[in-house]
Amino acid sequence: MDLIRYSKIDTGMKREFLLLQGTGCRWRKCSFCDYHLDRNDDPFELNKSVLESVTGEYGTLDIINSGSAMEFDERTIALIAEIVKEKSIKDLWFETHWMYRNQLESFSSNFPCKVHYRTGVESFNPELRMKWNKGIGRDVTPEMIRRYYEGICLLVGVKGQTKEDIISSVDIAERYFDYYSINLFCPNTTDTERDDELAAIFINELVPQFRKSRKAEILIDNTDLGVG
User: Fold this and answer.
1) What pLDDT, on the 0 to 100 scale, is given for residue 35?
2) What pTM value is reported for the model?
3) pLDDT per residue as tens digits for the range 75-100
4) Which CATH fold topology does 6-219 show?
């Protein structure tokens, strides 16, 4: 099935949102993730077809791939820069793994606009991060992450997680970051199991509370932002 790769988000942080292809996630160890299957050694033509849809309507462009922004091919990076200039994009968002944190400034220099980054923290409980093989050490604090990233992604509804874990992580995200997404785990090809009881608590008890934040985006399904 072909993936939807372009959408417009007209609530919260209004933006055009693109799912492009990278050349492959270099980390590829997260126990819950199979997004890395969406890759190509030469994804430029596909990416070009998606980038041609950008209008610049909101002045903000948010580009993800199934990995990190640094894993785009050179032609895609150059075309993104052209589109940013041509469509008068003021703010450009990318997502990267924590291991790329020291490359953000250099990567930003490719683009003639303000560049923002988010990373998949998934949880501020270090034991969960270690269990999920996130590659973000136990000693990494929210303050350390904030030095590099303005936004983060959280994962909820996984067996072994608790309601208290979720509340604590969202509270930290609210205090330290400008933007965060809360993503309910959807079963996939990995061995990670969803906790359906916790998922129900999240949807029925926590989501109404979390929706009050202007910083939060909540994804009950992977495609809730219109791509995937």
Assistant:
1) 85
2) 0.95
3) 999 999 999 999 999 999 999 999 99
4) TIM Barrel (3.20.20)
